[in-house]
Amino acid sequence: MFSLLEFLLAALIAEISFVSAENVIVPGAAWTDTSGNIIQAHGAGILKVGKIFYWFGEDKAANSALFSAVSCYISSDLVNWSRQQDALTPISGTMISASNIVERPKVPLWLATANTPCGPYLYKGSWQPLDADSRDMGLFQDKSAYLLYASDNNQDFKISLLDSDYYNVTSVVSQLNGATLEAPGVVKEDNIYYLIASHTSGWNPNPNKFFSSSSLSGPWSSQADIAPADTNTYFSQNAFDLPLGSNAIYMGDRWRPDLLGSSQYIWYPLDWSTGSPQIVPADVWSVDFNAGTYTVASGQSYEAESGSLSGSAVILTGSSFSGGKAVGYLGNGGSVTISNVEGNGQGGQWIALYYTNADSTWRNTTVRSTVLVDQPNTGGENVVLSVPVKLNLREGANSLTFAIDQSNCAADLDKIVVYQQG
Ligand SMILES: *[C@@H]1O[C@H](CO)[C@@H](O)[C@H](O)[C@H]1NC(C)=O
Ligand SMILES: *[C@@H]1O[C@H](CO)[C@@H](O)[C@H](O)[C@H]1NC(C)=O
Ligand SMILES: *[C@@H]1O[C@H](CO)[C@@H](O)[C@H](O)[C@H]1NC(C)=O
User: Fold this and answer.
1) What does pTM read for this prediction?
2) Which residue puts its alpha carbon closest to atom 7 of ligand 2?
3) Where does the secretion signal sit in this chain (predicted)?
């Protein structure tokens, strides 16, 4: 006998067609590689060699924080990624054994060497740079290379110069005392260095900050936000910042501690047009690396409060909702159906659900009763975030029902935005 859960899973698999060739970047979706497998490269580091991008990251498929592999993926377009041999795998009896934690791999790897970008790398050893602890490392390469790391029990943040063969740290060039920073990246724009980092709050996201200076040795400006502080960096933590023309790409992780391998990638344009780096929270976007440009897709919005409500669902008012209204008390008997959603009938379209979840834990909502979409906590009723889902819409009018057939509470739904792209 099929249980209801098995039925839902079977229906879910039927609904989601496996497409591994993609054209757009959709932050927060389950990203697959060119073989259709979920990309396991958390805490990313990107290296460009010739026309090829290499993405190194932590393989968390085992849903454990312990070291299983530094994976390596290659792409020529930053969208289609194909997995290569692992760059580094556990070596028992060393500091990179399967019972150690290896996080935020960055290449050129400081502790391992290889002849080809993906490696595999020869492990040469680990030690504390200049005899002080180092955590959550980043790497920045200018004319020289620098190690960026949290030190002194995560209290002080340090930038240290590497020697000419990138084997060891030679001196601390800058130290931000008591800064409690981690997950750092540095981008240089117009001869100004921007240090981008999060604060320390475990797996939970916090408002990531930037600091600027005309020299890597500082002095650094006081910290400022790269996104509205109450969004907690759109529920993500910085991992790497890749220069893109006069802007950059913010590459972050949306950690899911109870299911680490399902942590999503949050990549957004990081735009300097206001004079300082600010995340552009695009649901769907594309990048032309050679031209140094990005394009944010525009979609069609449908307000939840214009849908038809059933069961316990009620209309909520609030100044942060689009149109001042949203639909609450969804799930556990409440649902809303949005009609006349225009589809293109081309086999799959991205839809962003704008929602608010004031709980301290994640919620989720069904769509068309069988597809389940996760809804991370937004930190408050006044903070609206979006999560993507890909659906097959027929050409012309479609009806979409949210939060039916679920006993748990869904988040409050503000609106949906339907994109042409699949
Ligand atoms: C990804 O690969 C597919 C198949 O080769 C191609 O059609 C698509 O344009 C590629 N995406 C990008 C962004 O280049
Ligand atoms: C790294 O450099 C420091 C400072 O110069 C030195 O004390 C240490 O022995 C070096 N470590 C290795 C493994 O070469
Ligand atoms: C959906 O969310 C509820 C909490 O509202 C949670 O208990 C449940 O495990 C979630 N379901 C899945 C499949 O993640």
Assistant:
1) 0.90
2) 130
3) 1-21
CA–CA distance, 221 with 209 (Å, rounded to integer) = 11
Q: Which tops the pLDDT comparison, 9 or 409?
A: 409
Length of the chain: 422
Token pair of 187 as six digits? 């981008």
Ligand 1 geometric centre to CA of 35 (Å): 14
Indicate the SS3 state at residue 231. Answer: helix
Is residue 112 a contact partner of residue 97, using CB atoms and an 8 Å limit? no
Does any ligand 1 atom lie closer than 6 A to the CB of residue 77?
yes
Cis peptide leading into residue 219 (ω within 30°): yes
| pLDDT at residue 200 tops 50 | yes
Please, what is the average pLDDT of the chain? 87
Atom of ligand 1 nearest to the CA of 76: 14
Across 390-406, average pLDDT: 97
Ligand 2: does its nearest atom lie under 6 Å from the Cβ of 7?
no
For 310-322, how does the pLDDT look when each residue is reduced to its tens digit (9 = 90+)?
A: 999 999 999 999 9
41 contacts 75 by C-beta, under 8 angstroms: no
Look-up of token digits 């540095």: 186
Q: Which residue's structure tokens are 């040795």?
A: 217
pLDDT-wise least confident of 26-35, 121-130, 297-306: 121-130
Is residue 266 within 8 Å of 249, Cβ to Cβ?
Answer: no
| Nearest CA, atom 3, ligand 2 | 130
Residue 164: count of CB within 10 angstroms of its CB: 9
122 vs 114: CA distance, rounded Å? 6
**In order of start, what are the domains of the chain with their CATH numbers?**
25-296 (2.115.10.20), 300-418 (2.60.120.260)
Ligand 2 pocket mutation pick from 130, 134, 160, 168 by most atoms within 8 angstroms of CB: 168
d(CA 418, CA 9): 24
Cβ of residue 80 lying under 6 Å from some atom of ligand 1: yes
Q: What CA dihedral angle connects 127, 256, 386 and 338, to 10 degrees?
A: 160
pLDDT score at 14: 35
Going by pLDDT thresholds of 50, 70 and 90, the confidence category of residue 178 is confident
Burial 197-217 (b: 16+ CB within 10 A, else e): bbbbeeeebbbbbbbbbeebe
Ligand 1 centroid–CA 87 distance in Å is: 25
Give the pLDDT of residue 99.
64
